Amino acid sequence: NRRRTDYLCRSIYLPVIRNDLPEIFEAFDFADPHVVTGARTQTLDATQGLYLMNDRMVVEAAEAAAKRILGEDVPGGDRGRIDWLFVSMFGVPATDEECEEILAFIRETGNRGSAEGREQAWASACHAMLSMSRFQFLD
Known about the structure:
The chain is mostly helical and 139 residues long. It has helices at 23-27, 46-54, 56-71, 77-90, 96-109, 115-130, 133-136.
């Protein structure tokens, strides 16, 4: 019994049951399924931010991304990991400033010395990246 949010593709490819939209569609400007719509509006509001901060699927995706990146042998160490994440999520490498901010966050949060603390720090960084407006919109 799969949850309707367990699909591994963009929403454009999901079946739409007009009277039973997934919760995520309601929060993120999904077009009215009862009419033809050529273009969707793009908004950013507090409800969307709260959804991304608290939705279990987003938290699990961030944790999975952290486990994957920590399990990869990435050239450049943590800096290389950040670039890999940015290219995977946004299609471009991180700027020096973005790298420094994320590295500082990971050092600050993951300095407990345990592998679990480090993984949690990376999961939090991934969660923040998944919640960025850059992740929501394609330019």
